Amino acid sequence: MKITAAITRTKGEISIEEAELAAPKASEVLVKIIASGVCHTDAAGIEGFIPWITFPQVFGHEGVGIVEEVGIAVDTLKPGDRVAMTFPSCGRCKYCLDGHPYACVHLNELFFSGAYKDGTRRISQNGEDIGSFFAQGAFATHAIVDARNAVKVEGIPDDKLKYLCSLGCGVQTGAGAVLNRCKPKPATSLVVFGSGGVGMAAVMAAAIAGCTQIIAVDVVPSRLEMAKEFGATDTINAKEVDDVVAKIKEITGGGAHYSIESSGIPALTLQATACLRRMGIAVICSVTGPAEVSIPLEMYLMNPSVTLAGLTEGGSNPQIFIPKLAEYFKAGRLPVDRLVKFYDFKDIKQAFADSHSGVTVKPILLFD
Ligand SMILES: NC(=O)c1ccc[n+]([C@@H]2O[C@H](COP(=O)([O-])OP(=O)(O)OC[C@H]3O[C@@H](n4cnc5c(N)ncnc54)[C@H](O)[C@@H]3O)[C@@H](O)[C@H]2O)c1
Ligand SMILES: [Zn+2]
Ligand SMILES: [Zn+2]
Questions:
Q1: CATH 3.40.50.280 at 2-168+335-366, yes or no
Q2: Does the Cβ of 63 fall within 6 Å of ligand 1?
Q3: Ligand whose nearest atom lies closest to the CA of 313
Q4: pTM
Q5: Measured from the CB, is residue 358 less than 6 Å from ligand 1?
Q6: Does 173-312 carry CATH code 3.40.50.720?
Q7: What band does 90 get if pLDDT is binned at 50, 70 and 90?
Q8: Among residues of the chain, what percentage have pLDDT more than 90?
Q9: Which of 3, 180, 219, 239 is the right S-S partner for 315, CB 3.0 to 4.6 Å?
Q10: Does the pLDDT at position 279 exceed 90?
Q11: In the chain, where does the domain assigned CATH 3.40.50.720 lie?
Q12: Does ligand 1 come within 6 angstroms of the Cβ of 264?
């Protein structure tokens, strides 16, 4: 079928063009996209910072929409179902089978190469194959996804569906880092470095989990103000405070129990580790390409028995976690609608620019 898609052919470039979308294969579904979130990882992919990326590719991996057609082996979804699309996983490796699809051994190919799990692509133009980011490619009017990465959302009115885009990646990542990995004990402290889509979700989740000190660190004052509305008890503007780690230790009386690094800045891994108290847990969510950091091991990790953890997609099993996040949204406890600014699909470049400048926390593209 004919679709309109935002195609990236070379680093940094996006062009809205007509293309051809194949029919869904046996385990796949065809989704008419209603809305599609812009995540920092799209920007990292388009800019070529992620080593496994291939071009040309259609980015976008936070689509919500309506199932229009299902492959012959799909028995979990039917035409008309409302779905939030999320990250892909093979479903066959030992990590997937053990309930950890975020640790799938095929993650890099499936997330970044543009190919689906059979190694082929679904979008083409004049006979040339075009990849689909996250085996999804949601910056387009329609997308093909495996039924494993389309999560049925129920009980949300159609006019609210567009707010749920980031449940598929950014919000799942931040909320999952807190709820699935840190699992905060009551009355504990949690620091979030970077109050973007991921970080704001981490703040909201820390409030849900019952943390009594929630510290948001950012460099954009409006984001810090917003973080307070979501439960941050303290904020630190990293541009105005000389020693962020010392400030966190002062606020928490010796160091935080947990920290989430979601600024996208590799060097902040060190701060996220150094700001912890003994037995603290730091969770690194940022996508930082081949960047390396140096950490004094004995002082920050071994001696204080601190855990430094990397985590993809909030350590979530999306078919279980996304419906839970939708319940929190319905209950008003995960107000992701307040992060959002909508853009027409044709204004995709403006959406990226506003995300980059800090004007918009979560840009969402709308499709007719
Ligand atoms: N692990 C995963 O599965 C996963 C999923 C989604 C996104 N990500 C990654 O998470 C990161 C955050 O994504 P996002 O969409 O929230 O990005 P974003 O750009 O919306 O947010 C980053 C925030 O960091 C802030 N920041 C910049 N400099 C800072 C500093 N010195 N100290 C503190 N904060 C600072 C920015 O002002 C911004 O608010 C990105 O690296 C993204 O690629 C990872
Ligand atoms: Zn797998
Ligand atoms: Zn993402």
A1: no
A2: no
A3: 1
A4: 0.96
A5: yes
A6: yes
A7: very high
A8: 98
A9: 180
A10: yes
A11: 173-312
A12: yes
